[in-house]
What does this fold into?
Amino acid sequence: MEHEIKTEEISNKQRNKKIDILKSEYELYHQKYIDYKNATTNKKLDHEFKLYTEEHTKAVLNIEKQVFYEKVSQLKADNQVMGRNITKDKYHNNRDEDEKSRKRKIEELQEDIDKLKDEIFKL
It folds into this structure.
């Protein structure tokens, strides 16, 4: 009987030892799993933050780009209108001035001709 009790005690010690070893391995694997889970979660959060930041920046830049394109389009349209006005003024306004200057020259020449006629008649 004592022999059986001793063998059982030895067997229980071995089992307890095995249980302690398995518990320590479990704790080790459990800690590795928790570390992996935390690392994965942190990585996921970092990627989500990066994605949000990039999308927000993209949206802001698209709005700024649209504003600049509108300004550029407006300036181009204004430049085109000014160019047309300048060309119109250049050709149309000069006609009046050219006609006035021609009339003055013709009138001056006519006056010179009249003076010369008077002088010729006098002579």
About this structure: The chain has a mean pLDDT of 91. Residues 3 and 9 are 10 Å apart (CA to CA). The first helix runs from residue 2 to 122. The chain has one helix and no strands.
